[in-house]
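Q: what does this look like with copper (II) ion bound?
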Amino acid sequence: MLVRRAAGACSAAALLLAAFTGQALAATKTVSAGPNAKLAPELSINDFFRQTVTIHQGDSVKWTFRGFHDVVFPAKGHKPPPFFAADPVAKVEGFADTAGAPFWFNGQPRQNIDPRSAFPVGGATYDGTKLTGSGLPQGNTAAPYKLTFTKSGVFTYYCTIHPGMKARVKVLPKTAQIPTAAQDAKAAKQQLAVALKQAKKLAAPKVPAGQVYGGSDRGSVNYLKFFPGSITVKAGQSVVFSVLGSQEPHTFSFGTDAYLKDIVAKQITPVPGAGGPPTLVFDPRALLPSDPPGPLPPYTGQNHGDGFLSTGTLGKGLPGGTKASITFANPGTYGFICLIHPEMHGTVVVQ
Ligand SMILES: [Cu+2]
């Protein structure tokens, strides 16, 4: 009891002292990149919780990661860097299919993760004048990212991985009133409730006959799933594969398990740099269609040697567009996955 009273007196003294000198104690608020909640495994909500966090000048924000996200503050008034970009020099080379034929994309520009998205940049404080970011965190086990805000203002930040995923930090003078931690938690909870309500509406999209959707998305709410999971057609018929959302690109990729797994494992490969950090390079087989731009050839089950055929990444705003049609020549049961989200599986049954 005595000890507790002494501790209480001590912290009261510290508060008094702080009030006296006009110095609020520097505090840290936490924001979750992705909801800090257990969701259905195929449901991805690409948002920051809470959306606008308000702090005092000199305070910090700590981001914890749920899902594959980053935190990037451009200099105020500037756009965030892209997630990936064409290498100005290096070309794709040496990619051949299992039949030994070179892929069409040899000679195309290599696609790298932009180093400003890939690696931490800008240091531990932010005042709005220079690009500052977390680099690519490694999923849910990533260490939190912490930034101290030295100037007042309203600062917009981005996840460069998911287009449209952005939020704000409002930095107020030290004397201003700001929400309490409890108020922040309540707002984050409400924000999640709204997203989950949206998710309910997206869980079973109406898909026209003869089509398969990759994902069912609206804004930050994304189902990482094929709809329907299995489609049956007659030999000689086609299926239209489409991605209507813009935040999560998908591929529709046929092939043997081993071949597709190999691409997934090499989806992003570090290539050592000369004295600097490595360049993170995308496997062109994951990003680009298996065949030259234009209508895809019919699927026979033996394309490119052992049956590889891929639409490349589809989605709103992507060079590959939102849809691809594939004609199925031979009866059989053909599995496909998304090479960006390999947990997505589907089947085409050809009769
Ligand atoms: Cu993200």
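The radius of gyration is 24 Å. Residues 46, 69, 159, 161-162, 165 surround copper (II) ion (CB under 6 Å).
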